[in-house]
Design a protein that fits this description.
Elements: H1 6-29, H2 31-41, H3 43-61, H4 79-82, H5 89-96, H6 98-118, H7 120-130, H8 135-146, H9 153-164, H10 169-176, H11 188-215, H12 220-228, H13 233-244, H14 246-258, H15 266-275, H16 277-280, H17 283-292, H18 297-328
Helix pairs in contact: 5-18, 6-11, 7-11, 8-11, 14-18, 17-18
Length: 331
Amino acid sequence: MNVARPHQVETSVATNTSTSNALPAAIAGKSGTSKWRQIYHDRWMYLFIAPGLIYFLLFVYFPMLGNIIAFKNYSPFIGIRASPWVGWDNFERLFTDPNFEQALVNTIQIEFLQLIFAFPAPLALALLLNSLISEPIKRSIQSIVYLPHFLSWVIVIALWQQVFGGAGVINQALRDNGMDTLNIMSNPEFFKPLVVLQSIWKDIGWGTIIFLAALTKIDMQLYEAAAMDGANGRRRLLDVTLPGIRGVVILLLILRMGSMFSTGFEQYFLQRNAVGPEAAEVLDTLVYTLGFSSGQWSFGAAVGLVRGIVAACLILFANWLAKRFGEEGLL
């Protein structure tokens, strides 16, 4: 029987140790190569997302370079380069303009109402549809509530005018019965709740698509186990359903907060003359009314730039808030 000598054992141990130390270094040296191999392995996935990436680069990020006109007295007749540089003059005028203050207040108030009432509305509808047993009834309701999303705001406002306007169906019925009419569509006091209801009516069906898809990913065995433990419908909703779609809700909430200062244009501009700019002027319409329509391109760009910066800050804040609450187990 061959017995290894002590110096041979020491040599073998040293060789194994050096080999084990060199192995991570070799792997680290090939990390760059492995990344390219992984990219090549997933090349069809990258090719699939390439059109969307190109779209955002060309039509979203590249046009951001035009925000430089916010620091100039821009005129389209002489171009960006020839337009004189004015620095912060447009922003100084912006923050001292009472119209900007009114538009900012209206935007915050409307978006606060949208966040409280319009954001959870698709979730509530999705939970109600998910609780239906009859599939034909569920599909019929889904088809009905989806339809308003495909209508333009011009048609939506016209429909609401025919129902709630001064000569609408409701006021006509009140007149026929000798009752006082309600001036809903032209009353500035009703405007903010009205636009929230319009948004809910138009987009609640479309917003349920993501929530319904998330609900289908919840394992049915969790409901069965909760029912065997004696949990009623309310407890199954709170302990199984809502935690199962928590990630989707947080993601949509972050995206919603990022678009808080982009309320939209058509919905407010179409009703601006009826209720007055004091109630209907928001940041999106201010860019047009006091900026582009009056030839003050730089002022409009300054409004848009401020709105974009605030929206980006809101996204970062919402993301940080979601991460912190997620780590603490509050969401």
